[in-house]
Write a structure and sequence with these properties.
With about 475 residues, this protein is α/β, with parallel strands linked by helices. The chain has 3 domains: about 220 residues, FAD/NAD(P)-binding domain; about 110 residues, FAD/NAD(P)-binding domain (3-Layer(bba) Sandwich); about 100 residues, FAD/NAD-linked reductase, C-terminal dimerisation domain (Enolase-like, domain 1, 2-Layer Sandwich). About 30% of the residues lie in helices and about 25% in strands. The strands form 5 sheets. It has a 5-stranded mixed barrel. A 5-stranded parallel beta sheet has the order 7-14-8-9-10. A hairpin with a 5-residue loop joins β11 and β12. The termini are far apart. It binds flavin-adenine dinucleotide. Flavin-adenine dinucleotide binds next to α1, β2, α2, α3 and β3.
């Protein structure tokens, strides 16, 4: 006999465990199915994504600070890098958070099943338990939150030795490569480029599109390339790797690339494939439902995350959009609030902050000037450099800027684009201002403490009307 719940969730990542808590708050009984070994919840983000990468990047950033300490009057002597300890700390952070999520499930009375979930019928999910055996769960509602997996290019096999993925980087315990070629310059590619460079590796980025971080504002891409090159990272944008030419016969890898500089052969100890992710839908047996999937494997949903199958919702990476942990969690919350008959506000994609934790950090939301103009807006824009912000000089991070894109007719904020110190934190103010339909003038009117990096937000906002004070 199948056990019955108000809600069965497949996948224990942000799009799964977060809505599980919200559903429990709303009085629903919830079953959560997660296949990860050890039953660890938190999905890609906690286990092999956001958290372990940022723990590694924290060490990278500290290492850079120590190496550059003399400017600040600190002579630390010979700085030594102990990678096994770096990995140990990374895992300690991950484990602490895993325990935290497991505790939250208990507190919220969410029943967790460790195994692979698949549809038997639209509202019936079979769990092939990792310990052996099977369970059947019936839900008034089902939420698909099965997320995404590492992707590669046709013909390029990830062998986990010389050709590696992000999963391999965040589970490596012994050492870092002395040289690495990174294919792809999205968030994952540039974060690892920044990290390996700080760890002392020779890094080459190969990006087939014309600029790195190609989804960001063009000036952000240009600034990042300049800073990366200043740090000795080789950036080959507009360059295509010839996958067939990959040669792993020697100690490392060799691969031919062709771009603006003609054809050349790159050599390194390892090749990191960072070309994006694919949705994890193969094991779900969606054929037992009317759920619709695009050619790219994206589950099709409406603004409340309903699929074409009555009572079956989907959220997170599996529905496309921005493949980000905070987007996944918010989507899941909207979905369960809708199931519970609440009146949730659909999520506006233009209010989802996009964050990249390379050095310097990148953060943005909404439209660039070009995108806004294409959509017919009359645009005004303000830009303010960190070099005119006292705290940025104090912190020794004077590079970068914040840009505000606004609608000239209504004064509403259309987007923000930032590169520089702690912009992944600072962007929250812009998102909040957009949520409450604030204007750049209002951000400018809000008193920002001095000296803080946050002053860049008010100055950039004031710059929209030419009223910035310090530049
Ligand atoms: P996932 O986190 O992928 O979770 C899905 C879960 O479902 C998995 O645990 C999987 O095991 C399970 N599952 C799949 N199929 C089944 C099944 N049939 N039965 C049972 N369980 C199943 N985002 C950010 O916002 N900030 C960052 O800094 C950031 N850094 C990242 C760094 C890296 C290297 C990577 C790879 C990603 C990063 N992301 C970051 C993206 C973020 O991790 C994802 O957007 C987020 O994890 C998506 O959550 P999700 O719940 O949709 O899917």
């Amino acid at each position: 006999m199948a056990e019955s719940f108000d809600l069965v969730i497949i996948g224990g990542g942000n799009a799964g465990y977060i809505p599980a808590i919200r559903a429990s708050q709303l009085g629903m009984s919830v079953a959560l199915v997660e296949k990860r070994e050890g039953g660890h919840l938190g999905g890609t983000c906690l286990n092999v994504g956001c958290i372990p990468t940022k723990a590694l990047l924290q060490t990278a950033s500290m290492l850079s600070d120590f190496k550059n300490g003399e400017e600040f009057g600190i002579k630390a002597g010979k700085v030594e890098f102990d990678y096994p300890q770096v990995a140990k700390r990374r895992d300690a952070v991950v484990n602490q958070l895993r325990r935290g999520v497991a505790g939250l499930m208990k507190k919220n009375k969410v029943r967790v099943y460790n195994g692979v979930g698949s549809f038997v019928e639209p509202k019936k999910v079979k769990v092939a338990l990792n310990d052996g055996g099977e369970e059947e769960l019936e839900g008034r509602f089902v939420l698909i939150a099965s997320g995404s997996e590492v992707n590669t290019l046709p013909g390029l096999e990830i062998d986990h030795e010389k050709v590696i993925s992000s999963d391999d980087v965040v589970t490596e315990n012994e050492s870092v490569p002395s040289s690495i070629i990174i294919l792809g310059s999205g968030a994952v590619g540039v974060e690892f480029a920044s990290m390996f460079n700080d760890f002392g590796a020779e890094v080459t980025i190969v990006e087939v599109l014309e600029r790195i971080v190609p989804l960001e504002d063009p000036e952000v891409s240009a600034q990042l390339q300049k800073e990366f090159e200043g740090r000795g990272i080789r950036v080959l944008a507009g360059t295509k790797a010839d996958i067939e030419s990959l040669d792993k016969s020697g100690d490392g890898v060799k691969i031919k690339v062709e771009g603006r500089d003609g054809e050349q052969t790159l050599e390194a100890e390892k090749l990191l494939v960072a070309v994006g992710r694919k949705t994890a839908i193969e094991e779900l047996n969606l054929d037992a439902t009317k759920v619709e999937v695009s050619d790219r494997g994206i589950i099709q949903v409406d603004e409340f995350y309903r699929t074409a199958e009555d009572g079956v919702y989907a959220a997170g990476d599996v529905i496309g959009g921005y493949w980000l942990a905070h987007a996944a969690g918010h989507e899941g919350i909207v979905a369960v609030e809708h199931m519970a008959g609440e009146d949730p506000m659909p999520l506006d994609q233009d209010m989802i902050p996009r964050v990249t934790f390379c050095r310097p950090e990148i953060a943005s939301f909404g439209l660039t000037r070009e995108q806004a103009e294409e959509q017919g807006y009359e645009v005004k824009e303000g830009k303010f450099p960190f070099r005119a912000i006292g705290k940025a000089l104090i912190e020794g991070e004077p590079n970068g800027f914040v840009k505000v894109v606004a609608d000239a007719e209504t004064d509403l904020i259309l987007g923000m684009h930032a590169i520089g110190p702690h912009v992944t934190e600072l962007i929250a103010e812009g998102v909040f201002a957009k949520l409450v339909e604030g204007t750049p003038q209002e951000i400018g009117m809000a008193v920002h403490a001095h000296p803080t990096l946050a002053e860049v937000m008010s100055e950039a906002a004031l710059a929209v009307d030419g009223h910035a004070i310090h530049f």
